[in-house]
Amino acid sequence: MVRSxxxxxxxxxxxxxxxxxxHYSHARYSTEYEPFDAPPPASEAADAEETLHTxxxxxxxxxxxxxxxxxFLYEDIRVPRTYHDLKHKLCDGEHWAEHGISxxxxxxxxxxxxxxxxxTVTPAPQTPPGALDxxxxxxxxxxLVRTADPLTPIVYDFATPACPALPSLRRLxxxxxxxxxxxxxxxxxxxxxxxxxxxxxxxxxxxxxxSLFSARAPPAVLxxxxxxxxxxxxxxxxxxxxxxxAFPALRHVVFDHVGPAEMFWPLWxxxxxxxxSAELGRxxxxxxxxxxxxxLAGAPALAALRYHxxxxxxPAPARDAVFLRTVALHAxxxxxxAPGSAEAWAHLERHFAALxxxAFPALRxxxxxxxxxxxxxxxxxVRIARPLREKGVVVDVP
Length: 398
Prior knowledge:
Shape: globular
CATH architecture of the largest domain: Alpha-Beta Horseshoe
Helix content: 25-40%
Distance between the termini: 40 Å
Strand order of the largest sheet: 1-4-5-6-7-9-11-12-13-14-15-16
CATH class of the largest domain: Alpha Beta
Largest sheet: 12 strands, parallel
Radius of gyration: 24 Å
CATH topology of the largest domain: Leucine-rich repeat, LRR (right-handed beta-alpha superhelix)
């Protein structure tokens, strides 16, 4: 039997890595588009908390493990209002001569930072310098998350200092906060976008007030932006984003929880012709309206379409999707339509019949994601998939 101190360091690091991963780790750190990789917020928060507890336990086992696991502990940080201890660890690391522990500054370990708006309030001029200093220290920061929390006080009375440069930032998850946005800097989406020229993935949510829509926002060119994800938002937020930002490399768009399809006309005008793929999230809003038809009308060169079939209205586009070659269907169930019920089979058949119809002349592949085992094994599935297969479309059953 091999003793623990005889294992190579590389093996220990691999063990620690596996121990500190959860179901949504990839979705939190990913800076590239992955199909159906958007985590439900509630599940994500619970898993992230459990992972943090594991990391905290590992760094307290022994001196050697502390040295090895500090990068895992500091790869994902939350910047609190009382930031002094965190800033000290990022700048100076740990040096305990009496215990023989010396850990270098942790700023280079940080890959993802959660910066709540409660940490960037401005109750006095030239605040909050501390939170900005922490973000500026993270030279390898790839993912920045801005979100409102229940404890966010409404004390945004003065302008925020200029947003620090974010040259390594690849992903920005942004929830709009109207009171904070008035102060600019790190609290303004437009200012942060202007400071992050290497951004590849942007997700936005929140509702922009009419009174802030006319505020002057600096234009931002995002030459590397590949993926744009819309969470719950209103038309004004979509309009201002598409008016003030240019994304010449945009290829993928994801819609999570949206309002009427008509609110996205600024997106189609700005980038509809260049989009290669679109994805619809797990929201019954897509069941209440034919959002697929709106997407196909706005992005006529779309090559791939992905959606949750039980949450989405069967598509009936106004014109043929002549470039669409791949459709991916996720099997996530809804609460009101049980899998295997007559209603579920009828709904699925309407989708397959639409895809087998003349509106999708270039379709070559239907990929199935999620749990299709019971559905795909049923004789009813073979029957409703037959028109697609007779058309020459490959139905890729997992």
